[in-house]
Amino acid sequence: RHGLRLDAAQRDWHLSTPVPYDPPLTYSGWSQSRALGERIADLLPDSDAEHPYQILIHSSPYTRCIETSVGIASGLISSRRHPHSKKATLRVDEFLGEWLNPVYYEHITPPPPSHMMLAAAKATLLRNETIDEYIPSVTAARSSSSRLWTRSASTSTTTGSGTIAPLVRSRSITATADLPPSTESILRPDGDHYIAPVPQYAISVTGPIPKGYFTHARERCVDVDMAWNSSREPLDWGDGGQYGESWASMQRRFRRGLAKLVQYYSEEAIQPTVVILVTHGAGCNALIGALTGQPVLVDVGMGSLTLAERK
Predict the structure, then answer these.
(1) Cys-Cys with 20: which of 14, 46, 267, 274 at CB 3.0–4.6 Å?
(2) CATH architecture of 6-133+196-292
(3) What residues pair up with 222 in beta bridges, in sequence order?
(4) pLDDT band at 191 (very low <50, low <70, confident <90, very high)
(5) For residue 45, what pLDDT is reported?
(6) How many angstroms separate the CA atoms of 104 and 119, rounded?
(7) Prediction pTM value
(8) CA torsion, points 10, 119, 230, 301, in degrees to nearest 10?
């Protein structure tokens, strides 16, 4: 299931957006997703350089699931357990979308048809942002009078030939070459491992993901299959349902899509394959029920993992 969503942490968030039905993750949810990717890497048997795992992530088209998917991919590549792991392939599927229960949308606008959600998801995956870092500019020298600091009348503080400037916001950072020494390590490649940017300033875990972090992880950890559309022929895995669908209809939607997905990879896979499905709470119930062959009604925790192995 996706990580912690912003509208659950900020109850009035829906009042400030034109898409209240599609909240993003919080920074805590982003961290959850990365930790989940590392956990998946820990659970996988060891692979070798000649036969690395093929990692395929199938996501609901909702933003919180797209961001969770990229976070999982970054966690997988960050793990030192599988040093030969390459980029994951990300595919967006309509059938993995949220249960369109009218009760969910009593006070907000309901989502558009699933094909429009798919288009919006692909637009999200094309979004480019740069990382803004707050970098202190400090140069200090002891003065000849043996006083550590000598305050001047200007806005900066001077000591002899040294100057201590106030904390300033740097230019946007887009590449390692642009980084000052104090922050270069947070983006520096480490062999096959991904090193994620880390805030160098105070940040709320219930706030949004810092600007640029999603783009940074997507570019380095994910190959997005933009041509993928499983709702159309020849795949025909199904769409995201109709607004007002019943619990039983939602269950059938997920069961049908899962059955076709398993059949597809049974025929296509030519190397060790790991398929990760990222969806919503109701969808997790449907998928667990389909995998176990039993009715399931549980509160699936955000950022949680259910693991199944094909016999």
Answers:
(1) 14
(2) 3-Layer(aba) Sandwich (3.40)
(3) 88
(4) low
(5) 84
(6) 22
(7) 0.81
(8) 0
